């Protein structure tokens, strides 16, 4: 039977790429686009995440799976999916929103009769799968670190920029030996030698959902995330602004402009380092088409798994629905992605 997939936020940057990759890989999927504006075809649905009355078209069009590519801070779509037994995957939630949504789904787990998948970790939620590639026995892992190379030349959606603009002055939690420690973005720098010709860069604190996922779900005692920009000057400027509390006196609009990316496309790179008692292992991943392509491709892998009829109904993080080998092999075979291990 043909599967009906609804991408809410399908007119946005990542949503468009998800639709493109799905169309190329799965010609038998029937794809719908949900947005607040009316479209030109019968598959363009008017959906406002803050207006549940607009969700009736989901039932009318017999949607099998909802893909959330836009912010749903009240979790109206999540609750609708659970109540109506519709599959659901979200790739948009920052850490605070993710914990709320996960707890909501967990509280309703006895009423879940579809697949509810949270995939808001870095680049479509693939970091935990890569950690599992390096060490499947999480009890052996003492520390996991994620290092991100971000280019302001890359195409980027508004959600991550807006999150940083809204939260750059607020502390967030990292974990040291299972003790939560409050830190701030763009402080506590360390030098890291990035792969793919980037070289040594200062990298600063960043809040991404993998902090919560790797410690609270996978029970890894020490977890940290650091980011560097393609411009060493911009990286240093971020640290300077935070240390001198300049972000505190900037308006929200000024911070949004500062964190926004208006490039035409560039590579994105991230590296995952796993330390056990006697070994240090690293996976380095480069997407030559940028972060939107990698996030979208990762999301498509999750969608395909959810529709494969091999997954029990229930509440998941995206890394829990695959074997790590499946994810690694899929990434390695994708033309725009390069992987190195050491």
From TrEMBL:
<protein>
    <submittedName>
        <fullName>Saccharopine dehydrogenase</fullName>
    </submittedName>
</protein>
<dbReference type="InterPro" id="IPR036291">
    <property type="entry name" value="NAD(P)-bd_dom_sf"/>
</dbReference>
